[in-house]
Amino acid sequence: MNHYCTYFDRGYLAQGVALWRSLGRHDAAAQLTVLALDAEAARVLRGFGEERLRVLDLAELLATEVELAAVQATRPRTEFIFALTPCLVRHLLATEHKIQRLVYLDADLFFFADAAPIWRELGGNSVLITPHRYPAWHDDLARYGRFNVGVVGFRRDAEGRLCADWWREQCLASTALTGDGERFGDQKYLDAWPAKFSGVAECAHAGINTAPWNWARHRFAIAADGAVAVDGTPLVVFHFAQFKRISAAWFDSGQLEYGIMPWRLRSRLYGEYVAALERAEAQIRALLPGFALPRRGWRASLGAWHLALLRIFWGQFWWRTGAHLIAGRLGLGRFSGHAMAWYRRRQRRRK
Q: How do residues 90-125 score in pLDDT, each as one tens digit?
């Protein structure tokens, strides 16, 4: 078996189910352990009755992770959620002896091709991390870190477990979202791994954890059969971070900071993802009547007035018609990331 893990609550249930369905299609040997953060998520996942989909209740994890339980009582929910990542990884490596290799996946990932390249990237190493791969003009590296937590792999050997233990200790101490260059949730700690531990591999595959923040530095090609290539290699798994439903036909792409993805590419990637979310909604409703993918609403999506104007101008909000997602900017939106980077540099100079 190829062992994976993730976590989510009802709010990300549709994304989590879509992730599992896509993973099952592209890795016949996959077993996914989901840390269910509420009763609704646990009920639906168990209701599927699938052998390769294992559910771990949050209460069960907290019973063995006493320090994590203490964190839950004192930390804001967002910061507590970030402390779960290393605790879940460490718990599975410590208690599930059949797991020799484990890959953590964020719940808003979606597989487009064979997952085997992830395991090849881990290879004989103890740890696998994926660089953010920001475009050269982007300036968030120091704030968010060199690496993204969306895809992280561990081997159940001495160095892999040592790394997981250290990560857990740091996150139990702080998962503050300060963006101060020292800490950012569970993520900034990954910067220290290559120097601190041996056997840490930096993923070199452009199609693994491809995301809104790095699409602009890559070359994409869509074949006649719909297969997507990134820099000449298959798109394995895309990270749909910050993508939210606003209303029945409108979506918030969350891409203002990085450049609005061109029409053909976003329709291919995000169009398939929206369809997968809708299929997941239907499957969930069969077990949880009345369930619907949460809607963010226009007020929350627009935000402060000056950002609202920028989001509207650059085409961050997409209207879905059939399989297409329309921004209405005729390609202009792809330059929004450059503009926002210039704006941030200007603001820093003023300070």
A: 999 999 999 999 999 999 999 999 999 999 999 999
Among the residues of 235-304, which ranges form H helices? Answer: 263-285, 298-302
Contact at 8 Å (CB) between 252 and 326? no
Identity of residue 60: E
SS3 (DSSP) at 11: helix
What tens digit of pLDDT does each residue of 247-304 get? 999 999 999 999 999 999 999 999 999 999 999 999 999 999 999 999 999 999 999 9
Contact 335, 259 (CB under 8 A): yes
Contact 170, 182 (CB under 8 A): no
Q: Are strands 237-239 and 208-210 parallel, antiparallel or unpaired?
A: parallel
Asked whether the beta carbons of 85 and 171 are under 8 A apart, the reply is yes
Residue 6 and residue 35: Cα distance in Å, rounded?
Answer: 6
Backbone angles phi, psi at 75, to 5 degrees: -110, 150
In the sheet that holds 250-252, the strands lie side by side as 244-245, 250-252, 317-321, 324-326
Q: Give every strand in the sheet of 2-8, ordered side by side.
A: 53-57, 30-36, 2-8, 101-105, 147-155, 127-131, 200-202
CA distance 50 to 62: 25
- Please state, in angstroms and as integers, the Cα–Cα distance from residue 42 to each residue in 53, 57, 103, 212, following that order: 11, 7, 21, 30
Asked if 293 and 245 touch (Cβ cutoff 8 Å), the reply is yes
3 state DSSP class of 54: strand
What pairing do the DSSP bridges indicate for beta strands 101-105 and 147-155?
Answer: antiparallel
- Domain limits, the chain: 2-241, 244-351
Is 3:104 a contact under the CB 8 Å cutoff? no
* CATH match of 2-241 with 3.40.50.410: no
